[in-house]
Amino acid sequence: MAYANTTSIARKGIADRLADLKDAVLTAIAQRRVYARTVAELNALTDRELADLGISRLRIAEIAREAAYGK
């Protein structure tokens, strides 16, 4: 017995694709702001304050990247 599949594939129109692009750009901008703010705040701390937090200056970029983009 043969079966016919009548499910149609929903295709995104240009408006949907532009909306997705806008969302992606806004997300990227927000992530970059979190990264930059985290780096600035950690760089503003003294070596003593960073040591109290258990953070080395060499790890600031890594910590900011994890804060902004996840692991």
TrEMBL record:
Q: Pfam families, per this entry?
A: YjiS-like
Q: Which residues form the YjiS-like domain?
A: 26-57
Name listed for the protein in its UniProt record:
DUF1127 domain-containing protein
Q: Which organism is it from?
A: Rhodobacter calidifons
